[in-house]
Design goal:
35% of the residues lie in helices and 26% in strands. With 276 residues, it is of the alpha/beta class. The chain has a single domain, classed as Rossmann fold, CATH 3.40.50.300. It has a six-stranded mixed sheet with strand order 6-9-10-3-11-12, sandwiched between helices. It has a four-stranded antiparallel sheet with strand order 2-1-4-5, covered by helices on one side. A two-stranded antiparallel ribbon has the order 7-8. Helix 5 packs parallel to helix 6. The radius of gyration is 18 Å and the shape is globular. The chain starts with a strand and ends with a helix.
C-alpha cells in the first residue's frame, strides 16, 4: 500500500509563489478530490509532484513510501509508481501509441526483462475495448489528430496499462461528453484497489457521480483551506466558493501567472531539465 505524503509544500514559477504550504496525504485505496476556483494552484500541485521543470520548490517535502520524491527526475518518479493524466496531453507525431506505451511499460522493468509482445497485445486490446476507442489506435501517432475526448481516454488507457500506485487525474473530465465521462469514470473505478491511491483535480461534481471520493479538499491561494466528504462538493456545486471565503475570511487573489509556457515531452523527462 503506497503512501504519498506532502508536507508544507511551497513552490514558485518565475519568482512568483504559487503553492503556499500544501499538506496532503494519500494512501493506497483512498480517493481524494481537489476543487477550487481557477488559478489557485491545483494543476501546479500536480505538475510539482511530477517534477515539471518550470516550478521550483522552495520549502517542504514530498515523499512516496518514505522516499524523497523531490530528489528524483520525472522519469524516476514515474518508475517509482507516480502517474499524471495531463489536462492537455502532448501530441507526438512519429511515435505510435502502442510503441509509446510498450516503451513506458518496459522502462519500469529491469533491463533484462521486457514484457512479451503477446501479453502486451492482449492487455492493450482489452484496455482499448474497455475504453471504447478506435481499433486502429495502436498504429496512430500519440495523440496526433486526436479529439479532446480521445486524448483523455488515451491518458486512462496509459494508466490501465502502467498500473501506477498513485495516480493524479488533472481535470480528466474536461472536454468529455456525458457518454465519454461515463466510460472514463467506469474504467477508473474498475482500477480502484488498495494498491492505488487517486487524486482527482476537478471543477465539477459530475466527475464524482462516476468516481466516488473519500475526501474532498478545497484549494485557495495556493493551499488547502477546507476538507470534507462529498457533501462539501455538493454544497460548492449549489453555492459556489463565496461562502468558504466568507467563513475563512479569504480575499480574492489569483496566484497562477498568466503566462502558459509549454515544454516538449522530452524536455521534462530528463534529470538535466529537472535540475535547471
Amino acid at each position: 500500500m503506497a503512501t504519498l505524503k506532502i508536507e508544507d509544500l511551497h513552490a514558485q514559477a518565475e519568482g512568483h509563489e504559487i503553492l503556499k504550504g500544501v499538506n496532503l496525504e494519500i494512501k493506497g485505496g483512498e480517493t481524494h478530490a481537489i476543487m477550487g476556483p481557477n488559478g489557485t494552484g491545483k494543476s501546479t500541485l500536480a505538475s510539482v509532484i511530477m517534477g515539471h521543470p518550470r516550478y521550483r520548490v522552495t520549502q517542504g517535502t514530498i515523499t512516496l513510501d518514505g522516499e524523497d520524491v523531490l530528489s528524483m527526475s520525472t522519469d524516476e518518479r514515474a518508475r517509482a509508481g507516480l502517474f499524471l493524466a495531463m489536462q492537455s496531453p502532448a501530441e507526438v507525431p512519429g511515435v505510435t501509441n502502442s510503441d509509446f506505451i510498450k516503451s513506458a511499460m518496459n522502462a519500469r522493468l529491469p533491463e533484462e526483462n521486457n514484457i512479451s509482445l503477446f501479453k502486451f497485445i492482449r492487455e492493450y486490446d482489452k484496455a482499448v475495448a474497455a475504453l471504447k476507442m478506435r481499433e486502429d489506435l495502436p498504429h496512430r501517432y500519440l495523440n496526433d489528430g486526436f479529439s479532446g475526448g480521445e486524448k483523455k481516454r488515451n491518458e486512462i488507457l496509459q494508466m490501465r496499462m502502467l498500473k501506477p500506485t498513485v495516480a493524479i487525474l488533472d481535470e480528466i473530465d474536461s472536454g468529455l461528453d456525458i457518454d465519454a465521462l461515463k466510460v472514463v469514470g467506469e474504467n477508473v473505478t474498475e482500477m480502484k484497489s488498495d494498491d492505488l491511491g487517486l487524486l482527482l483535480i476537478t471543477h465539477y461534481q459530475r466527475l464524482l457521480d462516476y468516481i466516488s471520493a473519500d475526501t474532498v479538499h478545497v484549494m485557495m491561494q495556493g493551499r488547502i483551506v477546507k476538507s470534507g466528504d462529498t457533501d462539501l462538493m455538493k454544497k460548492i456545486d449549489e453555492k459556489g466558493y463565496d461562502w468558504i471565503k466568507e467563513e475563512l475570511g479569504i480575499e480574492d487573489e489569483r496566484v497562477v501567472p498568466e503566462k502558459d509556457e509549454r515544454i516538449l515531452l522530452e524536455d521534462c523527462a530528463t534529470k538535466e531539465a529537472f535540475e535547471k
